[in-house]
């Protein structure tokens, strides 16, 4: 139907035109969304990095332009935004991720770029210089820790270790843990109970926190420490009813039930240990070396705080895994992989990596940068000695590729509080967790194939 | 025939004649120009509505028939599978029940509180403007800020609420855990009763003084005047507050702002009593990555809100009094 000039616009025609306009608008919006540059790496390139504000400060972004001539555009990290950008065909060029749990999930779905060819050509990031923690970013199509590299950790900690406040131990008349030998988990919990101070229904001093970086990853580690494995060999199921997993689960539920530290039934309003530990209200904090970044900056706290090895289960295996290994990966559909790799090399091997290594917020992920770890003060030397001894017990605990850590943690959070409040036995909890998590894993396996 | 009709007919005649003369542009009538102006001014809203409401809703409807999780390559169409699953999901029913209970409690309480405050600040008291401002102030505070403040005040170990209890020799309570968390949530709603107060105040100022004076001359007490004159005249306002209040309470995300760890996984650690329907939806989307299933949950909620709103209108049709000028109908 031809439009006659001057004829009144009918409602139907107007709506049709509106719809067409909206579709055009949507297409334009989609086109405008996060445009990334194309082509090969070179001066003046722009790389879109999805990161947190802590990962890339404005100063660091300016430094990148000066050092490598690449302009960095940041997008605040958000999983839903990442999904939207990937669905839209315009993924960021570099994405933040937690190696311990994200690497197998994304790699199994084919959205990560295999970085082996880049590592092979790099003179900055040599494979023989990579710390074993970077194996968290490897996935061979079946298991984590082997196969192609899909990313790299920016720094790391062995997250089953714990810091303790000697002043609070002295006040309670409790002996310090041995410097290089691990206590058992049973001893740790007993010590936490003795250190806890309560008054009029309020906890004035928490004996200890033990929640790991992600509770599920922590429970997987506890199970390995007890001599078993939380996941089946093909990672398609969990089994909390095995004796080892049951032991690990029972210990953690007891920790929550006794309320010696923060948990989901006694939440810390800060949502992390730092402020409570700094305020001398937490005697033991389940945090790895990275908490030293906060402790070293507090001149009162630093001489009082000490790092201790990861506990073991009585008769169990001594392990000290990393539950995070936070770093970056390049999406396989990135339009600017070469420039992204240049930023990757610079961030993980050049000036920013050196600055991070000397800051004490984590162990560097290149072995050659270890001499830069802070060791000027006597308390720093003591911490370094404990940390160096602990590195011998590092191992990768493979996570399932069929579910996100958040989804498994979500199910745990929904089911476990009843057991933490003493309204459900650990055996029933174990069965319910198996049922709920195995459903989630089954759905995930169907999606991956 | 009105001037508009005359000009419209003239315009049509002009168009027909002009169309017969090739090469000349037909004159534009006033009615056509008015149509164009109307659509021109309405088009930004309509485009926004189509782009930002209809399109996402249609997309969510499509997703609700799939297993889409945002990343996985093998998502597929499952028909009404998600809808069948959600009706069999105990979490859906439990969260819906808690949401219903929350709406039934918080909406009447906040309306009564808001109306009570409006009556107080409608009286000729000193510093009335100041009281009105102070009572309305919490409604201006961004919900995120209010959430942080409530978390600090009601923290078990360092919060002011337990400090006050301790002063009276009462042991501290775990306000942000079960079973007390639901009361804190209701307090956050009551805290913003200033919103309702403002609307009720406008309604109260619209009540004709002569009616109240007539009631007083007839010997009615203040309470009787309020009950028999003021409340009926305020009934449209109260209906509006009920409908919007129910919709807001069903969609509330305040529990998320009260969560110690407001991350996707942290939301799942909410106390059970605050695990309302929207929290269930949020967890399914962002913690479990089940975009299809969560979209089905949202569509069910949308239909449910339509039904509940319709039921409220129907149930109140006999008791809401519209003070319409009878002449206006002519």
Structure description:
The complex is a heterodimer of chains A (449) and B (330). Chain A has a domain of 183 residues: Periplasmic binding protein-like II (D-Maltodextrin-Binding Protein, domain 2), CATH 3.40.190. Chain A is 41% helix and 12% strand. Chain A has 17 helices and 14 strands. Chain A has a 5-stranded mixed sheet with strand order 2-1-3-13-6. A 3-stranded antiparallel sheet of chain A has the order 11-8-12. In chain A, helix 2 links the parallel strand 1 and strand 2. The radius of gyration of chain A is 25 Å and the shape is globular. The N terminus of chain A is likely disordered. Chain B is an all-alpha fold. Chain B has 2 domains: 46 residues; 240 residues, Orthogonal Bundle (MetI-like fold), CATH 1.10.3720. In chain B, 70% of the residues lie in helices and 0% in strands. Chain B is built from 15 helices and no strands. Chain B is globular and about 75 Å long. The two termini of chain B are 18 Å apart. The chains are: A alpha+beta (449), B mainly alpha (330).
Provide keyphrases for this structure:
heterodimer; A: 449 residues; alpha+beta; D-Maltodextrin-Binding Protein, domain 2; five-stranded mixed β-sheet; 41% helix; B: 330 residues; mainly alpha; MetI-like fold; 2 domains; 15 helices; globular
Short description:
The complex is a heterodimer of chains A (449) and B (330). With 449 residues, chain A is an alpha+beta fold. Helix content of chain A is 41%, strand content 12%.
Helices and strands in order:
The complex is a heterodimer of chains A (449) and B (330).
Chain A: H1 11-32, E1 46-51, H2 58-68, E2 71-76, H3 79-87, E3 94-98, H4 99-108, H5 116-121, E4 138-139, E5 144-149, E6 151-153, E7 155-156, E8 162-165, H6 166-172, H7 185-195, E9 197-199, E10 202-205, H8 215-225, H9 243-258, H10 274-278, E11 284-285, H11 292-296, E12 305-308, E13 326-329, H12 337-349, H13 351-359, E14 363-364, H14 378-390, H15 405-415, H16 417-420, H17 426-448
Parallel strand pairs in A: 1-2, 1-3
Antiparallel strand pairs in A: 3-13, 4-5, 6-13, 7-14, 8-11, 8-12, 9-10
Helix pairs in contact in A: 8-9, 12-13, 15-17
Chain B: H1 3-20, H2 30-63, H3 81-88, H4 90-121, H5 128-140, H6 143-153, H7 160-167, H8 181-191, H9 194-205, H10 209-217, H11 222-250, H12 254-258, H13 264-267, H14 277-287, H15 291-316
Helix pairs in contact in B: 2-15, 3-15, 4-8, 4-9, 4-11, 4-14, 5-9, 9-11, 10-11, 11-15, 14-15
InterPro entries (chain A): Bact_solute-bd_prot1 (IPR050490), SBP (IPR006059), TAT_signal (IPR006311), TAT_signal_bac_arc (IPR019546)
Protein name (chain A): Extracellular solute-binding protein
Organism (chain A): Streptomyces cylindrosporus
């Amino acid at each position: 139907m031809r439009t006659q000039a001057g004829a009144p616009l009918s409602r139907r025609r107007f709506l049709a035109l509106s719809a067409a306009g909206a579709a055009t608008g949507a297409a334009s919006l989609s086109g405008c969304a996060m445009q990334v540059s194309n082509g090969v790496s070179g001066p003046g390139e722009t790389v879109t990095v999805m990161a947190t504000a802590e990962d890339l400060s404005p100063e660091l972004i300016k430094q990148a332009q000066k050092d490598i001539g690449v302009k960095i555009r940041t997008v605040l990290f958000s999983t839903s935004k990442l999904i939207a950008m990937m669905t839209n065909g315009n993924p960021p060029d570099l994405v933040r991720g937690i190696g311990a749990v994200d690497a197998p999930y994304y790699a199994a779905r084919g959205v990560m770029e295999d970085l082996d060819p880049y590592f092979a050509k790099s003179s900055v990031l040599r494979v023989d210089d990579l710390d074993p923690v970077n194996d968290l970013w490897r996935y061979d199509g079946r298991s984590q820790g082997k196969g192609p590299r899909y990313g790299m950790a920016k720094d790391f900690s062995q997250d089953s270790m714990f810091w303790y406040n000697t002043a609070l131990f002295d006040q309670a008349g409790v002996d310090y843990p041995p410097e290089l030998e691990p206590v058992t988990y049973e001893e740790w919990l007993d010590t936490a109970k003795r250190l806890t101070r309560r008054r009029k229904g309020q906890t004035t001093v928490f004996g200890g926190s033990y929640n790991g970086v992600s509770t599920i990853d922590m429970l997987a580690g506890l199970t390995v420490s007890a001599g078993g494995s939380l996941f089946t060999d093909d990672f398609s199921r969990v089994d909390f009813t095995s004796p080892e997993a049951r032991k690990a689960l029972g210990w953690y539920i007891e920790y929550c039930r006794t309320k010696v530290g923060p948990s989901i039934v006694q939440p810390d309003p800060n949502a992390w240990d730092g402020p409570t530990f700094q305020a001398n209200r937490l005697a033991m904090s389940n945090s790895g070396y990275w908490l030293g970044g906060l402790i070293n900056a507090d001149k009162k706290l630093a001489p009082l705080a000490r790092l201790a090895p990861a506990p073991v289960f009585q008769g169990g295996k001594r392990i000290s895994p990393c539950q995070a290994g936070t770093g970056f990966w390049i999406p396989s559909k990135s339009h600017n992989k070469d420039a992204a790799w240049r930023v990757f090399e610079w961030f993980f091997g050049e000036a920013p990596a050196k600055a991070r290594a000397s800051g004490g917020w984590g162990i560097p992920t290149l072995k050659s940068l270890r001499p830069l770890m802070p060791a000027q003060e006597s308390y720093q030397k003591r911490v370094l000695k404990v940390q160096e001894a602990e590195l011998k017990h590092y191992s990768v605990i493979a996570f399932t590729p069929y579910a996100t850590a958040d989804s498994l943690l979500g199910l745990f959070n929904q089911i476990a509080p009843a057991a933490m409040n003493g309204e459900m036995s650990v055996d029933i909890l174990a069965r319910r967790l198996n049922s709920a998590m195995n459903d989630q894993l089954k759905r995930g396996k169907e999606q991956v194939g | 025939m009105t001037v508009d009709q005359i000009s419209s007919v003239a315009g049509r005649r002009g168009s027909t004649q002009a169309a017969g003369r090739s090469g000349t542009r037909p004159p534009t009538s006033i009615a056509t120009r008015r149509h164009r102006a109307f659509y021109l001014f309405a088009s930004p809203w309509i485009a926004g509505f189509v782009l930002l409401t209809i399109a996402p809703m249609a997309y969510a409807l499509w997703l609700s028939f799939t297993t889409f999780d945002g990343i996985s390559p093998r998502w597929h169409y499952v028909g009404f599978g998600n809808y069948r699953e959600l009706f069999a999901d105990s979490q859906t029913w439990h969260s819906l029940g808690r949401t219903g209970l929350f709406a039934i409690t918080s909406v009447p309480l906040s309306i009564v509180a808001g109306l009570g405050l409006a009556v107080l600040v409608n009286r000729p008291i000193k510093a009335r403007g100041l009281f009105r401002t102070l009572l309305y102030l919490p409604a201006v505070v961004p919900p995120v800020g209010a959430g942080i403040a409530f978390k600090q005040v009601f923290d078990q170990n360092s919060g002011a609420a337990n400090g006050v209890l301790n002063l009276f020799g009462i042991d501290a309570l775990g306000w942000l855990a079960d079973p007390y968390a639901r009361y804190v949530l209701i307090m956050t709603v009551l805290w913003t009763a200033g919103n309702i107060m403002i609307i009720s105040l406008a309604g109260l100022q619209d009540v004709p003084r002569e009616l109240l004076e007539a009631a007083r001359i007839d010997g009615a007490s203040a309470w009787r005047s309020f009950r028999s004159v003021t409340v009926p005249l305020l009934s449209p306002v109260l209906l509006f507050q009920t409908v919007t209040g129910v919709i807001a309470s069903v969609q509330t995300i305040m529990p998320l702002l009260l969560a110690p760890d407001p991350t996707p996984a942290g939301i799942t650690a909410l106390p059970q009593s605050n695990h309302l329907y929207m929290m269930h939806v949020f967890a399914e989307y962002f913690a479990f990555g089940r975009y299809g299933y969560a979209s089905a949950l949202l569509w069910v909620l949308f239909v449910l809100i339509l039904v509940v709103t319709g039921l409220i209108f129907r149930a109140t049709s006999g008791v809401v009094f519209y003070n319409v000028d009878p002449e206006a109908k002519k």
